[in-house]
Amino acid sequence: MKTEIKSFNLGVTSCYLICGKDVVLVDSGMPDKLHLFQKELARLEVDPMRIRMIVLTHSHFDHCGSASDIRKLTGAKIAIHESERDCVEHDSVLIPKGVNMLGKITKPLIFSFKISFPKFTPDILLNNSPYPLTDYGIDGYIMHTPGHTIGSLSIILNSGEAIVGCMAHNGLPFRLKPGLPIYAQDINAIKENWKILIDKGVTTVFPGHGKPFPVEIMKRKLNYPDTK
Ligand SMILES: [Zn+2]
Ligand SMILES: [Zn+2]
Fold it and tell me: Is-contact 184 193, C-beta < 8 A?
């Protein structure tokens, strides 16, 4: 199966189309981005009717903001981890801690105002078991990778790419270079999941904000031997 990842931005969020037999969208960007989404699909030459699933890496507004609108356009099913269901159906928000100084300073600004987005009922609730994407003609699976939030998800392709949501940040407005996210409920859990990705043979990491980067950067940040 030939699988290709197409990247685009919806607001400050990096979103991805995994194109195999069908197309799986990872994250839906900020609220009110449907028009921009349609423009990006046209630019990337992807027919919206091919999108069969929208995987939300977690329930924050900058990843779920346009999910409801995109579902109406495409008819795709929305998948999220079961532990974050309440946050997309109602007004509850998982508030992470600031990891570094910038995170500590900006966290109240970003999370306390509860930026609202159209709420929705997910179609597929994922648990802690891997969820294969073979039914979509994609050689990979969705995996529970908690840390940024309790129900954070990543998508691992067997060709070596991993789309990890906010398990990593690489770009404005959060970071200038690739690294850990600046907000996390449990930063140590994120580091454990970085190790799991490395052990699985991931080669390229696609973050929730910013551009893809090689897994060697994760190894260096975790002080793996021979990565200085
Ligand atoms: Zn987040
Ligand atoms: Zn985010």
Answer: no
Q: Which residues of the chain have pLDDT under 70?
A: 1, 112-114, 228
**Tokens standing for residue 12:** 């400050």
Q: How far is the CA of 135 from the centre of ligand 1 (A)?
A: 28
Nearby residues of 84 by Cβ (< 8 Å), 6 or more positions away: 56, 58, 59, 94, 149, 150, 151
Residue with tokens 């685009």: 8
Closest ligand, as measured to the CA of 30: 2
Neighbours of ion ligand 2 (CB under 5 A): 62, 166, 208
**Would you state the structure tokens that stand for residue 156, as one six-digit string?**
């691992």
pLDDT at 174: 78
pTM over 0.90: yes
List the domains of the chain with CATH numbers: 4-221 (3.60.15.10)
Interval 85-108: pLDDT, tens: 999 999 888 888 888 888 888 877
97 C-alpha to center of ligand 2: Å? 13
